[in-house]
Amino acid sequence: MEKEQLKQQLKEQIIQFLNLTNLTPNDIKDDEPLFGEGLGLDSIDSIELIVLLSREYGITIEDPKEGRKILVDINTMTDYIIGHRTK
Amino acid sequence: MAQETIYPGIPPSILRRMGKAVRMGIGAAIPIAQQNNVDGIIIGTANGGMEDCIKFLNQIKDYDEGMLTPGNFVQSTPNAIAAQIGLLHKNKGYNITHVHRGLAFENALLDAAMLLSENPHHQYLLGGVDEISDYNYNIDWLDGCFKKEKISNAELYNSNSDGTIAGEGAAMFLVNNNSVNAVAKINAVQTLHTTNEEDVRQALKQFLQQQLPAAQQTDLLLTGENGDARQSKCYIAAESLFDSHTTIARFKHLCGEFPTASAIALWLVCYLKKLPQHMIKRQGTASAVRHIIICNNYRGLQHGFMHITLEQGLHNSI
After folding, report:
1. What does the domain layout of chain A look like in residue ranges?
2. B10 interfacial to chain A (CB closer than 8 Å)
3. CATH T-level assignment (fold) for domain A3-84
4. How do residues B149-178 score in pLDDT, each as one tens digit?
5. What value of ipTM does the predicted structure carry?
6. Predicted confidence (pLDDT) per residue in B13-29, tens digit
């Protein structure tokens, strides 16, 4: 899968998993922070994202410090998925 | 299905996690909670967020008890409704949820009455909430709760078949001991578990004797008749206690059947200025409505009676 296709798919999955029904994939910028000022996600959302990575891409994040570096924006998540996906 | 509003009082970041029952409950509670300082929140709900609950249970199975998302679990507990109302309005008072299936609202009301007798100057947010969704509709369908044939609401009471129509809703009230500007007075509530219509008749007869002695009469009997042939015997038994003075009316063609539908009945008698013709089963001779008996049952087993008095002038003649 092309990187841009993966980004699009990931945005759709984030919208679905987090029930962000007021957003479309086009509303989420690749470099927009997921937490805080950007999408405004919170700690419960971070667990939902970790579950998303596990279910959809077979990626397990066990170290919270590692999670902070991955769940920054769409770019960092996509790069990590490309390098670590098992499905 | 309930027509949901856009819920202007709920922040979008919180709204997106809420299940339907939580949204409906909070949406109905916001006008009261924003305008009044309440000393506690008392909610009756049989199922709470059933949709989220079943989603969570399905996840446990689908993902072999592995990694599960917390959202569905957090929203699925019945007390999520009262808890979220409390959190949104920073209310740290009494916060409780009654889950006695078809008598959940009556038990919430009983709780409020006991609290008000202990704390006469307090006031409470009291409500009844239940949702219908794909999962619990299908479960109740398999249990034979709903009619197999298509039926319009207007034809509900003409049907002779088993089952009723599905419903859902939320109704909220501010209850206190202050009669100034009160919409209605809730005099008494009584519950009963039985499948025997004679037990219902006797219990209601005793309830009426206690509540309306001597010259006082029931002006309106509002029943939970729901078009289910299996349950009509209990309502027929109840209606047999009332003479031509009493108007008999029904409400479940408006909201469908759900465990806390009696909260909708209470809301209707509090806020309707005039009974619409489609609610009336038998027009009585009472020229004005003051004493009202609400008689409801859930699945022919859980029966609840309420005696409501309306302040004179609030209701037009029917």
Report:
1. 3-84
2. no
3. 1.10.1200
4. 999 999 999 999 999 999 999 999 999 999
5. 0.75
6. 888 889 999 999 999 99
Whether the CB of A77 is below 8 Å from some CB of chain B: the reply is: no
Backbone phi, psi, residue B191, to 5° = -125, 160
Query: Mean pLDDT, to the nearest integer, of B241-256?
Result: 96
Query: pTM (2 decimals)?
Result: 0.91
Cβ separation of B17 and A19 shorter than 8 Å? yes
CB contact under 8 A, A42 and B13: yes
**Closest-CA residue to B316 (of B285, B274, B269, B280):** B274
CA–CA dist B35, B154 (Å, integer): 37
Domains along chain B with CATH numbers: 12-132+167-176 (3.40.47.10), 184-310 (3.40.47.10)
* Token output for B310: 């309306």
Say what the pLDDT of residue B313 is.
Answer: 45
SS3 (DSSP) at B258: coil
Closest CA to B316 of B271, B280, B278: B271
Q: Residue B173 corresponds to which tokens in the numbers above?
A: 């009230």
β-pair partners for B186: B308
Asked whether the predicted pLDDT for residue B314 surpasses 70, the reply is no
